[in-house]
């Protein structure tokens, strides 16, 4: 009997050779080790500075540790949260459908399961169409709640036509999926409310980290205590608060230092703001390939993550950076309110309310004032929590269980009965 064939469709997927998240390659390599045949499909271009674009003419294939990757040609670059980003999404969806119908030029085996991953809903929509074409099972993976995120961050009102259209599309997809995989611990409540699915239709598989080897090393004794932020530098990351906190500490004569590693739509503006504020204790570092992140970790004494103040986080979060912070064995400072607060659960750092730069500055000074032994204990607790709950090996086993469950149902048939929404 042939090994199960899984297609994972993710517009923004990448390998450790480039900056950015590597969730699906981390899961896919482990699925291959468990006997699956995995085809990963992504765009040849992502809007990350330093990201090496794959040469693409229609569709380029490569193999990464047993995972067959298909990089779809992309001409449109998203410049920001404007029409260019929508055009980039639609271009990817169009090329995904065009190339997918031929199994990417016959390079991919017929799928048993197709996994369509958000954030935007056009990728799962094409995934569902391809699943129908090949009589495969369909799994939708929700990494961010669209269009709820648009409403929560004030891009559109709840009755805007775009929001209403996307809500109709998400309901359509959730009700037709054989299983919904979500990264958010409480998002099942959203799916039950919006689409009338049951809690049993939803599987929680968060982001993770490779918790192996030794934790990140210690800083040299002659260097200032350093807080590091790693990841996207966008509006939702509210890094203005971090710069303001750094300014407060600088005015007080504190020797604390802040390093921001990454890129995003706000990067240039943040650098300008740091110059305007004459911040001498802030440094910006370009995004690096994922495989090179480990060499930067010893530069930090503690890590920081910030959240916007929004009811959206009642469904929880699953920040890539948070689990990498914990795996590094260093304390974490989280400014945010969220369900299933990982830092509080692991007791691996400090948690403060969101959008309060003065409180952030106080918390940074408090964490730096702890003894090295206290900080080491915090870091160790975070590392052990990540090992017990968020190691990629554990998460891949859960993902494999979901795939095996839907495969056991056979080829795609009529839509299953769904529960009705109860007010």
Molecular structure report:
It contains 14 helices and 14 strands. It folds into 2 domains: 5-208 and 391-407, Glycogen Phosphorylase B (Rossmann fold, 3-Layer(aba) Sandwich); 226-389, Glycogen Phosphorylase B (Rossmann fold), CATH 3.40.50. It has 423 residues and is of the alpha/beta class. The relative contact order is 0.12. The strands form 2 sheets. An 8-stranded mixed β-sheet has the order 3-4-2-1-5-6-7-8, with helices on both faces. Helix 8 (240-251) packs across helix 12 (357-369). Helix 1 (23-33) links the parallel strand 1 (5-9) and strand 2 (37-43).
Task: List its salient traits.
Rossmann fold, 8-stranded mixed sheet, 6-stranded parallel sheet, disordered C terminus, alpha/beta, 2 domains, 423 residues
């Amino acid at each position: 009997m042939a090994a199960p064939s899984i297609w994972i469709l993710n517009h923004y997927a990448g390998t450790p050779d480039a900056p950015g998240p590597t969730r699906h390659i981390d899961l896919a390599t482990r699925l291959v080790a468990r006997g699956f045949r995995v085809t990963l499909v992504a765009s040849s271009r992502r809007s990350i500075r330093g990201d090496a674009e794959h040469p693409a003419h229609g569709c380029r294939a490569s193999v990464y540790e047993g995972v067959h990757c298909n990089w779809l040609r992309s001409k449109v670059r998203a410049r920001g949260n404007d029409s260019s980003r929508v055009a980039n999404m639609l271009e990817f969806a169009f090329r995904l459908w065009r190339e997918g119908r031929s199994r990417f030029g016959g390079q991919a085996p017929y799928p048993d399961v197709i996994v369509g991953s958000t954030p935007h809903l056009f990728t799962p929509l094409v995934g569902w169409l391809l699943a129908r074409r090949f009589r495969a099972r369909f799994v939708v993976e929700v990494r961010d709640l669209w269009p709820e995120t648009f409403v929560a961050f004030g891009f559109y009102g709840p009755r805007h036509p775009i929001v209403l259209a996307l809500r109709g599309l998400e309901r359509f997809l959730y009700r037709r999926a054989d299983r919904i995989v979500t990264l958010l611990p409480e998002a099942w409540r959203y799916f039950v409310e919006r689409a009338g699915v049951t809690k049993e239709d939803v599987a929680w598989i968060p982001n993770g980290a490779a918790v192996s080897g030794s934790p990140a090393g210690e800083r040299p004794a002659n260097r200032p205590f350093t807080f590091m932020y790693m990841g996207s530098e966008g509006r939702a990351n509210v890094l203005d608060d971090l710069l303001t906190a750094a300014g407060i500490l600088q005015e007080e004569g504190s020797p604390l230092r802040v390093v921001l590693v990454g890129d995003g739509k706000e990067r240039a503006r943040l650098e300008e703001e740091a110059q305007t504020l004459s911040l001498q204790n802030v440094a910006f570092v370009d995004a690096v390939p994922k495989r090179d992140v480990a060499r930067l970790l010893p530069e930090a004494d503690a890590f920081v993550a910030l959240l916007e103040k929004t009811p959206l986080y009642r469904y929880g979060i699953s920040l890539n950076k948070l689990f990498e912070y914990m795996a590094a064995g260093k304390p974490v400072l989280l400014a945010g309110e969220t369900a299933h607060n990982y830092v509080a659960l692991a007791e691996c750092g400090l948690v403060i309310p969101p959008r309060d730069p003065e409180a952030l500055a106080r918390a940074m000074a408090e964490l730096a004032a702890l003894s090295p032994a206290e900080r080491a204990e915090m870091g160790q607790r975070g590392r052990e929590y990540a090992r017990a709950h968020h190691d990629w090996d554990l998460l891949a086993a859960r993902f494999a269980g979901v795939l095996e469950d839907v495969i056991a149902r056979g080829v795609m048939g009529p839509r299953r009965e769904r529960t009705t929404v109860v007010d």
